[in-house]
Design a protein that fits this description.
By secondary structure, the protein is α/β, with parallel strands linked by helices. The protein folds into 2 domains: 3-106 and 297-329, 3-Layer(aba) Sandwich (Rossmann fold); 123-288, NAD(P)-binding Rossmann-like Domain (Rossmann fold, 3-Layer(aba) Sandwich). Helix content is 38%, strand content 15%. The chain has a 7-stranded parallel beta sheet, sandwiched between helices. Strands 2-1-3-4-5-13 form a 6-stranded mixed beta sheet. The protein starts with a strand and ends with a helix.
Length: 333
């Protein structure tokens, strides 16, 4: 007999992430509620919802209180999230002894790929030189020659969670000298990854390229500021695929103005997207992208694939690989 299941959230997003093939496989493993559950219809489907043992969701997951979980979902045992961060909704479920499983490992892959690619290009002076080439070819030639290239270049990784570690892994073939800031990284792990564990000051004052992968937590808001950006090398590059709130943007702007050979590559900002009056829009040494580093288009299906595999483990009573705990929420994105 198959267990009862339900999708939670927004139909368009669920169908985008869980493609037809994966939905068909899930249907073969569980009996699904015919309607996608959200806050507006949970009362209407309360009878069916009360028998649901597992839930599936992605971006757009409704936030429920503990009282609502106990009232409407008394038999829920596990919630599978085909996306990354579960910070917005996970705690009430954990408090109700519902296992929360996230595909954060799958979502980390495209972010790490994007960041690693930008780091390799930044070490060659690509970003500003490519713009200069159109009108100031000789200036572009002089500019890129001030960069070290990749062999032996110093690269700073700020935050060595799932994404940061994946970036380090992808950069290994380039034989870089990698510095890492992460207070939670054990010394043994730093030795295993062959990186230098150090502080933010050393990273910003010595590294050619710095890539931010801090977890999105209250403690990291404004963590990167004047103390760090003013220490950037004359032609250093700062890459942010973390969160805009982690950067004091006025301090970054001032540092980029003080030394125009510095570059910022910002896939995230605060607010996002930037306002029409943002100084970033006026600066030639700022590269803005519209939060494209995460999973998009067919990449999102990878996350649903991870969730499908986790659900099979759940059914087979095997250990779940990507289950989230209260302790993990203290440091994860």
């Amino acid at each position: 007999m198959k267990i009862n299941a339900a999708f939670f959230g927004m139909e368009q997003r669920i169908n985008h992430v869980y493609n037809m093939r994966i939905q068909e496989e899930l249907d073969s493993l569980a009996d699904f509620c015919p309607q996608i559950i959200d806050r507006e219809n949970m009362e209407k489907h309360a009878a069916i919802l009360s028998s649901v043992e597992v839930g599936f969701t992605t971006w757009g997951m409704p936030v429920f209180t503990e009282e609502e979980i106990n009232r409407y979902m008394p038999n829920l045992r596990a919630l599978f999230y085909a996306a990354g961060s579960v910070q917005a909704f996970a705690r009430p479920f954990l408090n109700c002894n519902v296992a929360v499983v996230s595909a954060w490992a799958a979502n980390a892959i495209p972010v790490a790929e994007f960041a690693a690619a930008q780091i390799v290009l930044a070490n060659k002076g690509y970003h500003q030189a490519s713009t200069m080439c159109k009108e100031h070819r000789e200036e572009a030639q002089r500019y890129f020659q001030t960069f070290p290239g990749n062999y032996g270049a110093k690269v700073g990784i700020v935050g060595a969670g799932m994404i940061g570690k994946k970036v380090i892994e992808l950069l290994k073939p380039y034989q870089l000298e990698i510095y890492v800031f992460d207070p939670y990284m054990p010394d043994e792990m730093a030795e295993q990854l062959i990186v230098k564990k150090t502080g933010l000051i050393e990273i910003f004052s010595q590294c050619q390229t710095i890539s931010n992968h801090l977890a999105n937590l209250p403690a990291t808001v404004g963590m990167l500021n004047k103390e760090h950006f003013d220490r950037m090398l004359p032609n250093a590059t700062f890459i942010n695929t973390g969160r805009g709130k982690q950067v004091v943007e006025t301090d970054l702007i001032n540092a980029l103005r003080a030394e125009p050979s510095r570059t910022a590559i910002l896939d995230v900002t605060n607010p996002e997207p930037v306002g029409s009056d943002s100084e970033f829009l006026k600066m030639e040494n700022v590269i803005l992208t519209p939060h494209i580093s995460g999973s998009n288009h067919v990449e999102v299906t990878r996350m649903a694939g991870y969730i499908l595999d986790e659900f099979r483990r759940y059914l087979n009573q095997e250990q779940l690989l990507y289950q989230v705990s209260h302790k993990m929420l203290e440091t994860m994105a």
